[in-house]
Amino acid sequence: MAPDRTLRVALLGCGTVGAEMVRLLHEQSADLTARIGARVELAGIAVRRPGRDRGGLPVDPALFTTDALSLVKRDDVDVVVEVVGGIEPARGWLIEALRAGKSVVTANKALLAEDGAALHAAAAEGGADLYYEAAVAGAIPLLRPLRESLHGDTITRVTGIVNGTTNYILSAMDETGAGFAEALERATELGYAEADPTADIEGFDAAAKAAILASLAFHTRVTAADVYREGITDVSAADVASAAEQGCVIKLLCLAERSGDAVSVRVHPAMIPRSHPLAAVGDAFNAVFVEARAAGELMFYGRGAGGAPTASAVLGDLVAVGRHRLSGVRAAGESAYADLRVRPMGQASTRYHIRLDVADRPGVLATVANVFAAHDVSIGTVRQSGRGADAALVIVTHLAPDAALAATVAQLRELDIVRSVASVLRVEGS
Ligand SMILES: NC(=O)C1=CN([C@@H]2O[C@H](COP(=O)(O)OP(=O)(O)OC[C@H]3O[C@@H](n4cnc5c(N)ncnc54)[C@H](O)[C@@H]3O)[C@@H](O)[C@H]2O)C=CC1
Ligand SMILES: N[C@@H](CC=O)C(=O)O
Ligand code: NA
């Protein structure tokens, strides 16, 4: 840090999050100086298009550069804030910074979930801090509690809604009957969606967050590839309506559980009862339940996406790393000592809600029930709606291994009395 007590920050990226961070830095400059004990100054801002009109952003245009690597390497840079996203070139920039002893604040969940180990190793090598509160559940202080406050406890389960875009879409489909495409377009306009929204709607973004949460909660290493993932592109208006008929809503859930020496981590749409606390989480809000042996149940709720909420988390991290630099200390590094194995999805215990279009004739119910019995899957409820060509059977199972449920559905598809398996949704929280 410069002798005049200035913390010089290289900002990589000035899009939805970066621009809000610049704005907040400017507006809160005096308070941040008082809180850190040093003035924060932007040393440079790496972007793809330096000449772009940035709508009166309070920043000197001379700070913009397209050469992020040279900016990171500059001797006068103390801290690197990365809000670009993606694996490369971000990984190369951050490893360079950390090895050189420059602390890093990043919102890049994709990179942390893909190769967090390399970033943590570089941070240890350079004696630098690596903070990433914005990477999971935006503004919600969640990773700091997992990294610090709960280190005296044993976390057994983490469940939540961690993707704002899909929650916005599913809430709109449920509340206003909006179409999928229209709701996604609006979520993108509002700055919730990733640069490529496929990451949101196919569940990759939530899976990356699930990997980060499971790693921190269970003191192990879980990567995005370890997470079972399904997105919401197959959730139809009919599914939403069918859930509503049964007093349920559909949410994209993240579920991470520890049992013994193994973890199971999954992301998929699921039906939950309207009375469940997660059912009330609307718009782009996120909510995460943490269950710990001594603490019991904890719930974290707030804005999981959007420029300003995410910038709030980035700035909180910047204050922390700034203070550490000033006092010459470093936060605890990665804690992955538990080294747990990852349980395959087939072994996870789940429940299914299955809607079958069936022929309306005697014996159908018995034939269908036999298929469930053959796979040792116990049926909770059966409901028949319609008659003749419109007959549908809605079956909700008890808990069973996911592999047994999947095999049941595969065999149901083969029955000639089953015209189609209209929908299969997991059920949680009841
Ligand atoms: N938007 C949101 O609600 C949230 C975003 N995040 C994460 O924050 C990061 C940034 O997200 P957004 O601001 O939404 O993205 P964005 O697409 O709006 O902004 C990305 C910025 O990076 C710059 N950039 C891209 N490639 C570059 C390169 N090769 N060299 C220099 N600059 C380059 C672009 O010019 C742009 O300024 C991502 O990792 C995202 O996953 C995390 C939480 C919430
Ligand atoms: N695209 C993400 C942004 C925040 O992480 C989301 O929709 O949650
Ligand atoms: Na957060």
Summarize the helices and strands and which ones pair or pack.
Elements: E1 6-12, H1 16-27, H2 29-36, E2 39-46, E3 64-65, H3 68-73, E4 79-82, H4 90-99, E5 103-106, H5 109-126, E6 130-131, H6 143-149, E7 155-161, H7 164-175, H8 180-189, H9 198-201, H10 204-218, E8 228-229, H11 237-245, E9 248-259, E10 262-273, E11 285-292, E12 296-303, H12 307-327, E13 341-342, E14 349-358, H13 364-374, E15 379-385, E16 392-397, E17 400-401, H14 402-414, E18 418-427
Parallel strand pairs: 1-2, 1-4, 2-3, 4-5, 5-6, 8-10, 10-13, 10-18
Antiparallel strand pairs: 7-9, 7-11, 9-10, 11-12, 14-16, 14-17, 14-18, 15-16
Helix pairs in contact: 1-12, 4-5, 5-10, 7-8, 13-14
The structure holds 1,4-dihydronicotinamide adenine dinucleotide, the ligand N[C@@H](CC=O)C(=O)O and sodium ion.
Provide an overview of this structure.
This protein is of the alpha/beta class. The chain folds into three domains: about 5-140 and about 305-325, Rossmann fold, CATH 3.40.50; about 145-300, 2-Layer Sandwich (Dihydrodipicolinate Reductase, domain 2); about 345-425, ACT domain (Alpha-Beta Plaits, 2-Layer Sandwich). It has 14 helices and 18 strands. Strands 7, 8, 9, 10, 11, 12, 13, 14, 15, 16, 17 and 18 form a twelve-stranded mixed beta sheet that branches. A hairpin with a 6-residue loop joins strand 15 and strand 16. Helix 1 crosses helix 12 (about 305-325) and helix 13 (about 365-375) packs antiparallel against helix 14 (about 400-415). The model has no long low-confidence stretch (mean pLDDT about 95). Bound molecules: 1,4-dihydronicotinamide adenine dinucleotide, the ligand N[C@@H](CC=O)C(=O)O and sodium ion.
